[in-house]
Write a structure and sequence with these properties.
Radius of gyration: 27 Å
Structural class: alpha/beta
Mean pLDDT: 90
Largest sheet: 8 strands, mixed
Distance between the termini: 34 Å
Number of helices: 14
Shape: elongated
Length: about 550
């Protein structure tokens, strides 16, 4: 997941002065910085969509700069109509090197899974914004270099109507030209604005336009025709825009202030929406205890003599596989009696509806049998073909990964985050080459390894697919290649990569399903280059 925090309309004043004689915007600005620092997970970056100051004064910008310096993540700013462009550059450029030295404050940030394009819409001395021919051409050129990468455009003045005359009179003039450019670029996922001091969402030019609230005072909502704007002391706030490759962007309003501690939802027993099992979060917690028990059993058995049997080709199954599977199957059946089971050793048992557990009780059996630490217990809960929760426990390494649909992934308690490696020449790639491969499959995989070895920084052969895919989700590996993946080892791990901002596809580039054989996982930034190399190796 990639998270943008959008702050807007700070209206910082010189020390000791209030905005409009009544609003302590400076205190509210610092409260907002505190609120951003308390977020878990923290945003990957912060954007400020204009009106950093109330009067564009040097003293005001020094206060803004000091406050923004408290944020540990990258911060990007554009001017609003209350800002003075030249003073903003003079005061902030030494600490915000992306700012141009003069002229319009237009720039592109291409360091994240989502491309950020910042547009200067200020017309000096005017409350409304403009989008002149020079800015139009700059935006066309900037978008032309994006190669379809998901993109967010940040601009102070909203180019769209919001149905409040007082606000719409102050919008971006010349917006038709911007509309046409936006329509030509479906990769633009959001147009983020400020200026109106309210949270507003609108369908715009084939995408979504969003206005962030002010971190200080708000504009009172008044939809009566002909009425102007008035301020109101509704709660200050900011926005979080969360991007995932499988869902795109969702936008969330975050009020600033103390509204009490979160508390558990406990609906009455007669409430028609009450889920007697407390839903997926409770199921995840209970399944985690089952998986933990099986993992502990594996650790205890690894130091003892193990009986093994042959499976396909040179592959084996140990009594530890069977012991772990017995614990997991029994535990999960007790939690969800009606769900089906698909397990590595015992196969499939049908359930009464579309839900099933997918279980690998010991992923990395040969590693385990030789005393190596690269093995795990992995389970996924699938409903109508979609993984709703996943658990991977690699006890000898001390790794625990949890996935919950709608909430994302944590790995050892931290949010999943893929690497930022942008080139195969800098990448470390893991490849599966295991004992159940046929001679033809071994030959195909060795061609891949040979070609990767000539291009990438490092090739690893660990042979524990769930563990390796999780390493991609955590950023410790840049990619993982399996040309013959079984469903049980990867159903839990694939959504962890997506949640961390990466990709998992087949060789054709299509997003993987659980039952696909070829599974290519990466941080997303090297994915097309990796697929092209694999196709060349397999020609």
């Amino acid at each position: 997941m990639f998270i943008i925090a959008q702050l807007s309309d700070l209206h910082v004043r010189p020390l000791g002065k209030l905005a409009y004689g009544d609003v302590d915007t400076n205190a509210m600005f610092h409260d907002t910085i505190d609120a951003v620092l308390r977020l878990d997970p923290r945003p990957d970056c912060v954007v400020v969509s204009g009106d950093l100051t109330d009067g564009g004064l040097e003293e005001e910008y020094e206060i803004v700069a000091a406050g923004l310096t408290r944020l540990p993540m990258p911060v990007f700013v554009i001017p609003g109509n209350h800002d003075r462009r030249e003073q903003l550059i003079s005061s902030l450029r030494s600490r915000h090197r992306y700012l141009p030295s003069d002229g319009f404050i237009n720039f592109v940030v291409d360091d994240f899974p989502v491309r950020l394009i910042f547009l200067d819409s200020v017309e000096a001395g005017k409350i409304h914004g403009t989008f002149c021919a020079a800015r139009q051409q700059w935006l066309r050129d900037a978008l032309a270099t994006g190669r379809g990468k998901p993109t967010v455009v940040v601009i102070h003045h909203p180019p769209f109507l919001v149905g409040a005359d007082g606000m719409d009179d102050l919008r971006l003039l010349g917006a038709d030209a911007l509309d046409a450019i936006i329509k030509d670029h479906p990769e633009i996922e959001r147009v983020l604005c400020g200026h109106y001091h309210r949270s507003i969402t609108a369908r715009y030019a084939g995408t979504v336009g969003y206005v962030a609230p002010s971190t200080a005072h708000q504009v009172a909502l008044d939809l009566r025709p002909g009425h102007g704007n008035r301020f109101i002391m509704e709660p200050p706030g900011f926005a979080l825009h969360c991007w995932r490759p499988d869902t795109g962007i969702s936008s969330h309003l975050v009020p600033v202030g103390d509204y009490g501690r979160p508390f558990e939802i406990a609906a009455g027993q007669d409430h028609p929406g009450t889920d007697r099992g407390d839903g997926l979060p409770a199921l995840l917690r209970r399944a985690e205890a089952v998986v933990g028990e099986a993992a502990a059993r594996l650790v205890a058995m690894q130091s003892t003599p193990l009986r093994t049997e042959r499976k396909d080709h040179l592959d084996i199954v140990t009594e530890a596989d069977l012991a772990s599977e017995a614990i997991v199957v029994a535990g999960l059946k007790a939690l969800t009696p009606e769900a089906g089971i698909l397990a590595e050793e015992s196969g499939a048992s049908p359930g009464d509806h579309a839900a099933r557990w997918i279980i690998d009780p010991l992923d990395g059996t040969i590693n385990y049998a030789r005393g190596l630490p690269w093995f795990s217990v992995t389970v996924a809960y699938e409903v109508d073909g979609e993984t709703k929760l996943g658990l991977i426990n690699a006890p000898k390494i001390g790794l625990t990964a949890r996935y919950l649909a709608g909430e994302g992934t944590t790995i050892d308690g931290l949010p999943a985050r893929v690497s930022t490696t942008r080139s195969l020449s800098d990448a470390v790639i893991s490849v599966i080459l295991t004992s159940h491969f046929s001679p033809d499959e071994v030959q195909r995989t060795t061609r891949v390894i040979e070609l990767l070895g000539k291009v990438v920084r490092g090739v690893r052969i660990v042979v524990s697919g769930a563990f390796e895919t999780t390493m991609v989700a955590s950023g410790r590996l840049d990619g993982f290649v399996s040309l013959k993946a079984d469903i049980v080892s990867h159903a839990a791990a694939m959504p962890m990569v997506w949640a961390g901002g990466g990709k998992v596809t087949t060789l054709t580039g299509r997003p993987c399903r659980n039952d696909d054989l070829d599974k290519i996982a990466s941080n997303g930034l090297i994915h097309e280059e990796l697929l092209a190399l694999l196709r060349r190796a397999l020609q």
